[in-house]
Amino acid sequence: MILNNENIHASIKEFEKQFPEDLQTRLMIEEVLLNFRDHFGTKAEYGFRIRRRPFGFSRVLISLKGEPFNPLAESEEDNISLILSSLMEDTVKKDSYRYLLGTNFVRFTLAKDKKTRKIPGGNVTIAALLAVICGLAFRLVPEAVRLPILSNLVEPISSRLPKVISALSVPLIFVSILTGICALDEISSLSSLGSRVIKRFFLTILFVMGVTFPFCLLFFPNTLSFGKGGFEAQTLITFLLDIIPTNVFTPFTEGRTAQVVFLAFVAGIALLTLSDTTARIRALVPELNALLLQMMKSVSFIIPAVVFLSLFKTFAGGDLQAVIASWRFVAVNYLATITAVALTVLRLPVFHHYSALTFIKKLQPLLVGSFATGSHSIFTNLQYELAEKELEIPKKLYSFWIPLAHALFAVSNIVPLFASIFFNAYTNHLEVTLSKLILIVLLLIELAIASPKVPGGILATYSLLFAEIGLPDNVLGLLMASNVFLINFEVAAGMLLKFSDLEDLHLRMQKEKAANH
For 459-494, what is each residue's pLDDT tens digit? Predict the structure, then answer.
């Protein structure tokens, strides 16, 4: 078959017809075919064969004659090595690519044909259910035995485990920001278009927090306080001064997120400015980022343990107020996210006379895929394709916007992070003062940039946020369990919000260009 878009689409449809539930392998096949097309061109010929074995392992074989080219290896051009590695983690083995007799072969081995029902949330959901059952059963144990076990065994372990992920998150935050800045290639990228895009990102973050705030006040009453002494200006000034560290080691040893972000930006701008003399260091940054990402993934098994111990302690201790209040956290997330997305999308018909339904229909494949997988990154190629063909956005704009949005700005995390502060204060009978609220806004701007984009990243972000604000971390398990009901929706909604903002900027730029002419 000729390696054109029509045949690629037909091959993917053929696989979907036989394996409709295997979305992960389907995405891998699409990535491989697109990488072959980009390397060999649309006139090359390829083979696509599915060997289905009812009582064994089915296989997909893709072949293409020509020079050696591994479509599963890192791509410097498209920056998709991390995407591919996350997709390949479970489905692709080391011998998936081979070059024999002048032909490139890519083989995917699929699991045995059997209908498996995946539990939403996976291990986190299982851990939460087990914690509820075990916690309620443990309440039958005499109090004289139960309370010492909870205080001397469960409490120390449950408080220590999140710190393992947080310890890795601090250097990962530094390197992730450094990687994103280095991806800008030249300091000139920060001028004109670049500065305008980054400005819109920050305004979007503030907008989402502004929408979330009234819902937090509604669902978590009596948590906002103006303080006994009014506005605590000294607290705010101290925080702003503390952003600048006294040395380069303290932020990492003490887990000071704000200082780490500051150092990352200083180092990133320095590397970008001295591009000629720091080429080797810049080349090393993505490799270091990949190493830290892999380390984070290797300890992600801790997340179900954190959820289990936190919920077990809550149910076994008999204090179920936080559990009952968790519906408020979920409600705030849904209502605030829907409102923020709706207001962003409605800018298109109000300011540009562009039908919101038409816009959403154009993004339908991306929104459905994001909701189904709960992932920002695995549809990167689809994002580029929709931006260019469906939305007709100039390459100069979308090629800058999409990777930067993924690397540095996690808009979909803003609502749960902001709501988690008020949820924590509400369940622990604490108050959020006005000065502390300003600190929260500043911290969330930083964490929106610095949130680790890996399994366990949101847990680490919750932990780091609570530590900076001075709140207890006894609600981490409930937040992670609640996240099961939110993650897919938040990712799809975040994707719609970001593309609505991108289209709004595109249409405004078109009007400005027309006005200048």
Answer: 778 887 888 788 888 888 888 888 888 888 988 898
Cβ-proximal residues to 83 (8 Å cutoff; 6+ apart), any chain:
31, 377, 378, 380
* Paired tokens of 317: 């201790």
C-beta separation of 211 from 340 below 8 A? yes
Per DSSP, the three-state class of 165 is helix
Q: What is the residue-wise DSSP string for 54-76? A: TTSEEEEEEEEESS---TTS--T
Q: What are phi and psi of 370, to 5 degrees?
A: -65, -40
**Using CA atoms, how far apart are residues 453 and 180, in angstroms rounded to an integer?**
12
Burial pattern 173-194, b for ≥16 Cβ within 10 A else e, equals: bbbbbbbbbbbbeeeebeeebb
3-state secondary structure of 196: helix
Distance, in Å, from the CA atom of 242 to the CA atom of 348, rounded to the nearest integer, reads 41
- Here the tokens at position 160 are 């220590």
How many other CB atoms are there within 10 angstroms of residue 516's CB atom? 6
Q: Are 449 and 409 in contact (CB under 8 A)?
A: yes
Question: Same fold for the domain at 5-112 and the one at 123-317+353-510?
Answer: no
Paired tokens of 346: 């409605």
- Predicted TM-score (pTM) of the model is 0.72
Alpha carbon distances (Å) from 335 to 112, 174, 328, 487: 41, 33, 10, 14
Separation between Cα atoms, residue 271 and residue 206, nearest integer Å: 29
Burial class of residue 316, CB neighbours in 10 A (0-12, 13-18, 19+): buried
What CATH class does 123-317+353-510 carry? mainly alpha
Burial (CB count <10 Å: 0-12, 13-18, 19+), residue 442: middle
- For the chain, the structural domain boundaries read 5-112, 123-317+353-510
CATH 3.30.565 fits 5-112, yes or no: yes
- At 321-349, the pLDDT tens digits run 778 888 999 999 999 999 999 999 999 99
